[in-house]
Amino acid sequence: MKNIKGILIIVIITLLAVFTYQGFTEEEFIPSKLQSEFAKSLISIPGVENAVWKTHVDLWIQARVDDPKKAKNIAADVVSKGSKEFGQIFCVHVHSGDWKELSKLCWIY
What's the whole-model pTM score? Predict the structure, then answer.
């Protein structure tokens, strides 16, 4: 009985440590006001359903596409709009809802 209690305590402590570590390592990026406004404006691009900043330079676009060629065109449209309106270096990652990158395009001044 003592062994079972000891093992149970070790398991509980281990699980607590794992969940605490995950909570501290999975912090969500908080975009600036300019980034948020730019992301909202992208809904006007045909095919774009949502835009989310994952880091200060990584913008993920959810689009109604499965074809990498169409995804590349959407990425190019976002970069074109960003080069005129946004004024910051960034990379566009296009996915169709599963977070698997279909296209990536970066813009540097």
Answer: 0.73
